[in-house]
Design brief:
Elements: E1 5-10, E2 22-27, H1 31-35, E3 44-51, E4 60-63, E5 73-76, E6 81-84, E7 88-89, E8 95-96, H2 99-113
Antiparallel strand pairs: 1-2, 1-7, 1-8, 2-3, 3-5, 3-6, 4-5
Length: 115
């Protein structure tokens, strides 16, 4: 699992405005934490969910369907969350972001977090 890769993640039952169900999500956590997750007690992974509900906006990044990502989707930067690694299906990488897409994610994360 590496930063910039997209996997299927089980977000569970939808609660109010939170994302729910199994959907693609971007691994946004740094690779040092990703490599050492087996060595720590809390096995949380920070992800950003994707949606096929294309609406645009300052905190979304559209990516075309490719590899195992069946539909055009948007990365929903403002829905950043940390979930237990057991919710991530690590068997298949759905797709990976390009360097340019990851740079856009970084810029929008800074904006969202006010950094």
């Amino acid at each position: 699992m590496k930063r910039g890769e997209i996997y299927l993640v089980n977000f569970g039952k939808k609660y109010n405005s939170e994302f729910g169900k199994i959907r693609p999500a971007l691994i946004i956590q740094n690779d040092i934490a990703n490599r050492n997750i087996d060595k720590v007690e809390f096995k949380g992974v920070t992800v950003v969910p994707l949606t096929t509900n294309i609406s645009g906006g300052n905190l979304r990044i559209k990516i075309d369907a490719r590899d195992k990502l069946i539909n055009e989707s948007e990365i929903c930067i403002n829905e950043l969350c940390t979930l237990d690694i057991s919710r991530i299906d690590l068997q298949i990488v759905v797709t990976s972001l390009t360097k340019k897409e990851l740079e856009e994610v970084n810029l929008k994360l800074l904006q969202h977090l006010g950094l």
